[in-house]
Amino acid sequence: MLTIENLTVCYGSRAVLRDVSLCLRAGEVLALIGPNGAGKSTLIRAASGVIAPARGRVRVENEEVRRWTPEQRARRIAVAPQAVHLPEAFTVFDTVLMGRTPYLGWLERESERDREFARRALERTCTSELAGRRVGELSGGEQQRVLIARALAQAAPVLLMDEPTAHLDLRHQSGILELVRGFARSDGLTVLVALHDLNLAAQFADRVALLVEGELRAVGAPAEVLTPDQLSAAYHLPTIQVIPHPVHGVPLVLA
Amino acid sequence: MRRLSPYLYCGLALLLALLLSAGIGAVYIPPLDVAQTLLARALPVPLPPGWSETWETILFEIRLPRTVLIALTGAALGGSGATYQGLFRNPLADPYLIGIASGAGLGAVLAMAWPWPVAVLGLATIPASAFVGALLTTALVYNLARVGKATPVTTLILSGVAVGAFATALMTFVMLRSQGELRRAMAWLLGGFTLGGWPPVWVAAPYIAVGLGVLIALARPLNVLQFGEEQAQQMGLNVERVKLLLIGAASLTTAAAVAFSGIIGFVGLVVPHVVRLLWGPDYRRLLPLASLLGAALLLLADTAARVVIAPQELPVGILTALAGAPFFLWLLRRARQEMFW
Question: A38 phi and psi, to 5 degrees?
Fold first, then answer.
């Protein structure tokens, strides 16, 4: 569904991503992990098509995303960014309705169908009762749900998320990821999510990709990637241990 | 305030301001008589009792052209101010702060400094030259502010201030060196409506109508732009193209306003804020409302400017600054306590 081929991205003369290749199936949640500055956000941005790679390409349904117009791209790839610096005064409903942008001409008004898409997205993210509130009045967890709703309204088969659980408390962290994994299962949504928290990645992702200094070190099931050796090397922290999670059985990383 | 249509409020405010502006002056004509006379032109309504030839001349040859020009200017300033604030996602952005008004002013002064451009090419030379000035300034500021492919707000404002100061200096130099009467030029600069009669109205109206029309038509993309350029692009907006169109239309509108009304500050800054506070941030409402309210407020300011030191006139720019600056500071203080952006 989403294919990243030999992607190299440079900021100026510095290569931030080097020769990264990843292939995501429909309905799969792939968590991107790695230390700060490893290039996770850059990979998300490049996958969304807003930055031009120095080499390599990103394809969705076998078409290269950089060849598409922004409208065409947004119909296939939706991005739920971190809930920071949002325009605070728009209502939740208006914000979600703006997810319909790729389907509307500049001079066109939203149709009843677009509104229906927005209402449905609110329902599915359990934010219907917030519809009339201003985005600035919401908690971080609620804002993140609204951004996911906006992405759902885009009705794209691929969803990219950059640290959606940053600044959220424990309950909201798993709530958000639970929600997104549900959409992957039920709608066949392809999800690439950058995560800071290794244990959340272990619990909610089908596969995990470990990115270190712009290079992909390991891709695979959580148990294959989240090993003491690989993590100790990646995070320069020799004391990392991994035990089985007492409830879920997935790897539990202790630093 | 939210129950009744905001358009009704702003429309009524504009109507009231129009009648006051047309009625009040050295010769007082009751605003209701003004309304009745205007109606009599279109409908089978009798002229008000006691209506005289003198009033007729004063109203149609002196007052109304100025009233309409001021309304157009106010609408242009309100609409383009709101657009710049949205475009650069900065509540402080305004045609003056980012140097565009100064660029337009320089263009207008260059067209006015010598008698021949207007004499040979007609009155439209002034807004055309102002438009060129505004566009060149915008292009210059935009390119100076550009870092890589982005246009950060900070560099934009800073280069706007620098370019604006440069243009203002050039404009002052040209004005001092030109043969014309300096006082008149200064009065124009501060927002005195010194050119009389209908011709400036006919020249400015199409520019402002087209500019505001384009801005209002692009209100929904402007809403999407509020999420920042990268998010807007990821939401499916062709950001570069929308920005170009918005900048072009806002420059056109600003240029036409500056060309005949000089540099009037704070209307483009304060009016959109008031509308945002009362009726929310949706540009589909904000742009038309800011235009209506901008027209109404500038008319009231100009009427006051004609009255306070009568029989002398105060340049309206002085009045808008005196009233606008404290109001804006109050807004700033308020913004620290509660978000409105």
Answer: -75, -15
